[in-house]
Amino acid sequence: MIDLTERILRQVIQPRPVESHKGTFGRVLVVAGNEQYGGAGIMSASAALFAGAGLVTLASAAVNRTALHARHPEIMFLDWTETAALRKSIQSADVIVVGPGLGLDPGAQALLRMVFTAVNAAQTLIVDGSALTLVAGGAIPFPQQPQLILTPHQEEWHRLSGLTIAGQTVRANQTALAQLPETTILVLKQHRTQIYADQQVYRNTTGVAAMATGGMGDTLTGIIAAFCAQFGQNKKPLPATLAAVYLHGLAGQELAVDHYVTLPSQICAQLPLLMARFSRAGL
């Protein structure tokens, strides 16, 4: 098992090119947040924004539009019942997140099927939250074409893999992962999050108990999306994913010096400061 260090941030986070525009830094679409769990979608999209994605769109239940734009007018909004517009947005994105606060009802199942059928091999698809539970139910298989990144916590991985939490050893996890599309990256969230890819296992070394609050996983998903959009070009999403996981924990760790609890919104605000620090460190 390989322990992550801040070296991964220096390797991945680069100074922004002088000649660039918003398209240079990738298009992220977040399909998340039903009427009850709208915050999950907003937090995931907010994290993608603060982590540097050039264009971020949230496709969500219509009731969440005002809350999003009151908070972050920089993020575009799409009512996910507008099927034609959603399909077009899926096809134009570089990275798609699906699942945070999606729900488990028939409408959520239909949305997930649409996403899975609309994505293509040039894209990265990050599957989280409710979407993982729906796939675990057996009716909706993962698509084979895109680069898949799965971000389950241990109970969600139990549903997907059949492994009990106690049985989630490195070898057992690798065996279960081998049953999924070949290039799948597994981000298994736990006390020390483990990342499985390319027959290797990486362990995050950042993060603190102050981060144990609702929405933290949604925030991580958004950071991974932004990093893959900016730094995961040429179908090399693994370093970007590793850096996102490490940075997420580091942001919480630094905030916890003065905060008993660190909220996802605070993590988001910390991201541009840390990214500026490590972009200079790589020079």
What features would you highlight for this structure?
283 residues; globular; alpha/beta
Beta-strand percent range: 5-15%
Class computed from helices, strands and strand pairing: alpha/beta
Shape: globular
Which fold name is given in CATH as the topology? UDP-N-acetylmuramoyl-L-alanine:D-glutamate ligase
Helix run count: 11
Intertermini distance = 29 Å
Number of domains: 1
Can you say what the CATH homologous superfamily is? Ribokinase
Domain YjeF C-terminal: 5-278
Binding site for AMP: 189-193, 217
EC number: 4.2.1.136
Keywords: ATP-binding, Lyase, NAD, NADP, Nucleotide-binding
In short:
The protein has 283 residues and is α/β, with parallel strands linked by helices.
Q: Describe it for me?
A:
(6S)-NADPHX binds at residues 40, 101, 153, 218. This is ADP-dependent (S)-NAD(P)H-hydrate dehydratase. AMP binds at residues 189-193, 217. Its cofactor is Mg(2+). The chain is an alpha/beta fold. It has a single domain (21-281), classed as UDP-N-acetylmuramoyl-L-alanine:D-glutamate ligase (3-Layer(aba) Sandwich). The chain contains 11 helices and 10 strands. The chain has a 10-stranded mixed sheet with strand order 1-10-9-8-7-6-5-2-3-4, with helices on both faces. Strand 6, helix 6 (130-136) and strand 7 form a beta-alpha-beta unit. The mean pLDDT is 95.
